Amino acid sequence: MSTQTPSVTPQATDKPAGRLLSRSWFGGLAALLVLAGVSVFVGVADLTPWDFLSGEATDRQWLNLLVSRIPRTVAVLLAGASLALSGLLMQLLVRNRFVEPGTVGTSESAGVGILIAIMLFPSAPLVVKMIIAIITALIGTAIFLRLVRALPPKAPVVAVPLVGIMLAGIISAGTTFVAYRSNLMQSIGIWMQGDFSGVLRGRYELLWLLALMGLLLWIFADRFTLASLGEDHAKALGLSYKATLNLGLALVAVSSAITLVVVGGIGFVGLVIPNLITLWRGDNLRRNIAWTALAGSGFVLFCDLLSRTLNQPYEIPVGTVSGVLGGIVFLALLLTGKMRTQ
Prior knowledge:
By secondary structure, the chain is an all-alpha fold. It has one domain (10-335): ABC transporter involved in vitamin B12 uptake, BtuC (Orthogonal Bundle). It has helices spanning 15-40, 49-53, 59-94, 106-120, 126-149, 159-181, 185-192, 209-219, 221-227, 231-236, 241-263, 269-281, 285-309, 318-335. Helix 3 (59-94) runs antiparallel to helix 11 and helix 4 (106-120) crosses helix 11. The longest helix is centred in the first third of the chain and has 36 residues, at 59-94. The termini are close together.
């Protein structure tokens, strides 16, 4: 891991600024709720707010709203917040701004679990597939951590993401080979592709577990911040460094696996959003949690709206839209020199 210590910028410690940002956050929340309201009524089926306010909505419209539109919007908000928070926590613990679950092999390892579930337990309920994906995601994250610890102390900052990308590539190639030999390429492709079109009531509820992951992140935020100072500093302050590190990376692995199983892979959210938030507010994890969740939800919701409107009546996978937009933002941060490396 990089031996550089994260800094806390003045924005994260100034109390008057904190109160101002708090008011700004509520303004951002109001804007997100408005965007979510718009999302509920965007789609192929004809639904307008006036139909429901005037009492003229048909039973079919109510069914569409309650079974499809609202669950989909809730799933988008939960997935976006979880992906952003997972990236924030991983970057803090690994002490590297260029990592996220999708670039260190965590998401690809969860995909191995999905492949195992499809091959061995094709008729198993979604929760069983999720448990298998969580186990393989934990294993993949542990392998990445082991490889990073083996790097020389003076290894460059880019060495960590390069190790992750190579590990992810190896895992993905192995998954593709097995799926191809087993004639499961189409099935695994559907699972791995980020898409909310299949979200319905009764299929997305597992995403509420992500709210629990966010609560645990809030509870242990101070411990994770201390762990980001490095093993020597953390132990000097009386923190169990390895236990805290393992807990944090386990939260990342579990959240990533749940999101992948329910809605598929959505790239760049965990990479771009945390970098933008920490660039603005510094490295205090507790102060950044709410903003990161809000920005992650807003980004994925915006991508989902674009996916439904750019090529109506067809949908573009949300993972494709987020990859394009996130890639543009990431390149902009790199080329303008605003991408922090510590």
